[in-house]
Prior knowledge:
mainly alpha
Amino acid sequence: MSAIPTPRSEPSRLGTSARASPTGCSLPRSPGPSPRRKATMRLKNEALIWPVLLAALLGGCESEPTAQQQQRSEQERAATLQTPQSIAIEHGELHETLARAAGEGGEVGAAAGELERALAPHFKREEEIATPPLGLLLPLAQGDATPEMRSVLLMTDALERELPQMLREHDAIRMAVTKFRAAAERKGQQDYVRFADNLAAHARQEEEILYPAAILVGRHVAGTAPQR
């Protein structure tokens, strides 16, 4: 009896795209995601990752803005507690004119030297306690008083205590101005006469406007600026 030939197995028509099922049948392999779907999935993943990274970055740098804010606050406080530039320039010009007049010698030079000796220590004290508070006028006009502004109170409290003495110094300065003006007029030096008149007006401006304004700055800050 001839042997029954064993049937030859034929290669699957599905080739590599077929896989065996548990029942032994050949099943097609599921296709992978299309390029467009891959791109969409990648964008979704990035959309999920970036908020996490950003939160971690901000959390790690949280202390840095605080330090920067403190430094900026100190810089702003130093900038505002300075004599306003317009007043500083005026004081500088007064000293320069007096120095030039003193260098001329004679009656005018002697009177200029006497006026400078009365004026120099007065201006120095003014620039320590009276004129720096005026640097807060603009910030206060633009917003509320801040805790950093309370450092001005040492100046304004001193100004209130020393105001009678500063006004007495003005009386001495007026006498020196009158003497200098008279000497300049006798010599026909009208530029120095006008300078003397301007200096007298400057003293009145301090008494009527600048000193009261500086004191009011201190009282406003004391009453409204939060405690640190």
